[in-house]
Specification:
Blueprint (H helix, E strand, L loop, with lengths): L1 H6 L7 E4 L4 H11 L3 E4 L5 H9 L3 E7 L8 H8 L4 E5 L32 H8 E4 L7 H8 L3 E3 L5 E3 L2 E2 L1 H14 L13 H5 L4
Parallel strand pairs: 1-2, 2-3, 3-4, 4-5, 5-6
Antiparallel strand pairs: 7-8
Helix pairs in contact: 6-7
Length: 203
């Protein structure tokens, strides 16, 4: 993959997704593939995140964000974890008992910030280094960005034609809407945007 990107002169951030793999194994794979970032989706302890950062990798740590009010443990761990970005994903359906918790993060009844648990520092975490994920589509990405002002957005199935196959039309629409939501002069929440607000987003 690294060779193809280099041959084509493509400058993209290469991210590898890992879950509960040994530290040395992740480092080896990352170095061979020429990864810039390591995304952790398991129960990796803080020592792993810290070690990867010390090796010069950008670290993204995923947490299941229980927007339905299922406790604040996930938020405490997310805020303290040594990572450059925190990916806030919806809980897996198999791990939740509530129908509400199984709905996508971007569904109509969850898009309002007032519907989220009022953990102190949540808004700051989302804006400064939070990546929202889970159930995000071209239909709700604009509202999510305007409401929460996240550092980033993670999308997969929301722009797919069928499982594992991206729909170029949906993808182009998604990107266009996301860019408009953070366009100069439009800040999260509907106010006026500063230069910093417009430039810090990776959309």
């Amino acid at each position: 993959i690294a060779g193809v990107l280099k041959a084509r002169g493509l400058q993209v951030m290469r991210v590898g997704v890992f879950a509960d793999q040994e530290l040395e194994e992740m480092i080896e794979v990352a170095e061979i593939a020429g990864l810039h970032a390591v995304q952790l989706h398991g129960g990796e302890p803080e020592t792993v995140g810290r070690a990867l950062m010390e090796r010069g990798f950008t670290v993204i740590k995923a947490f299941e964000a229980w927007w339905g009010g299922c406790g604040s443990e996930w938020f405490s761990r997310a805020r303290a974890y040594p990572a450059h970005m925190i990916l806030l994903d919806r809980p897996k359906a198999s791990r939740t008992a509530s129908v509400l918790d199984r709905r996508p993060l971007g569904s109509e009844d969850l898009v309002e910030f007032d519907g989220l648990p009022r953990f102190e520092g949540l808004r700051e975490l989302v804006r400064e280094r939070g990546i929202l994920a889970g159930g995000i589509t071209p239909q709700n990405v604009g509202r999510l960005i305007e409401r929460f002002g996240p550092w980033g957005i993670d999308v997969a199935s929301g722009v797919e034609e069928r499982p594992g196959v991206k729909d170029p039309i949906k993808l182009a629409e998604f990107i266009s809407i996301a860019r408009r939501a953070v366009a100069p002069g439009k800040a999260a929440g509907g106010g006026e945007a500063s230069d910093e607000t417009s430039s810090r987003h990776p959309y």
